[in-house]
Amino acid sequence: MRRFRVKLDRTIAYGVDMNLILQKNLPVAQQGDVKLPGMGPCASHDWLRVDDAYAAQMAYREKLLAERSSAVLYQSDAALEASREVLEQALLILPGLGFDVSNEHVSCPDGRKVTVDFEGPLHSLGHLVQEDICILQKHGDEHVLTAAVLCFPANWRLAEKVERPLTAIHEPVAEYDGNIARRVQRLFDAVRVGQPLWRFNKLSYADPDLHQPRRREVGADMPFRRSERQCILRLPRTGAVVFTIHTFVVRD
Fold it and tell me: What is the pLDDT at residue 1?
């Protein structure tokens, strides 16, 4: 595993409650229910978004990357070129989301300036966007998780999933049976360059913390709704598949 540093022109003051970072509302498209795999098309640029929790979520991401890098970041040598390509693609989208991208750094909507490091591309992205980013490459018949920046896991640990195929990654999910596994693998095989797909989930939580690698507690008092907007896209140069996760937490 490689570890990298990203320079910040100013440090965020952690004046937010990291355990209570909420959006005001779920996006309208995520207010219904969905069954696995339940994916549909999205615009070519729409795998990245900025919402009203951007500044608070980014402060938490910066803290996690500084203090728990080995838990939230994994970069294999085999996926380095694909990771660089994800960063390249993201930098093309960011100006339309309120970022100022120059040759030397990126000015973010919350006022931070991030110097981009193509030797640590996912570490850089972890400081720029709200999305967690996973890279999967085809090994044999399945796609394998070969790199990721995962600051906001929901009931899984990155260390337990890296270098594992899709079926092994989803072993604890009861509804992820053989039929669903085949359908998801077909989606990963079929996704085309410039034609991303997206889906969402929704679960009730007792604890609103975004970083929840452990199993969630289930009970009567579950006042928070957590929803992930998940996109899959294929990179044009390396052909790797990228799985992105934008996490929303709202109070029910």
Answer: 37
Element (H, E) at 142: strand 142-149
| pTM, 2 dp | 0.88
Taking the CB of residue 37, how many other CB atoms lie within 10 A of it?
Answer: 16
Q: String of b and e for 42-60 (b: at least 16 CB within 10 Å)? A: beeeebbbbeebbbbbbbb
Q: Of the segments 14-18, 24-28, 139-143, 244-248, which one has the largest average pLDDT value?
A: 244-248
Separation CA 225–CA 203 (nearest Å)? 6
How many angstroms separate the CA atoms of 248 and 24, rounded?
9
Distances (CA, A) of 72 to 113, 133, 140, 158: 22, 11, 27, 7
Q: How far apart (Å, rounded) are the C-alpha atoms in residues 215 and 203?
A: 12
Which parts of the chain fold into alpha helices (H)? 54-67, 69-72, 80-93, 121-128, 158-161, 166-169, 178-190
Contact 230, 199 (CB under 8 A): yes
CB atoms under 10 Å from CB of 175, counted, come to 8
Report pLDDT digits (tens) over 29-56.
Answer: 888 776 655 788 999 999 999 999 999 9
Please choose, from the candidates 183, 200, 164, 150, the residue with its C-alpha nearest in 3D space to the C-alpha of residue 28.
200
For residue 37, whether the previous peptide bond is cis, meaning omega lies within 30 degrees of 0, is yes
Which phi and psi (to 5°) does residue 245 adopt? -135, 115
Q: Residue 135 CA to chain centroid, in angstroms?
A: 10
Is residue 197 helix, strand or coil?
strand
pLDDT value at residue 246? 98
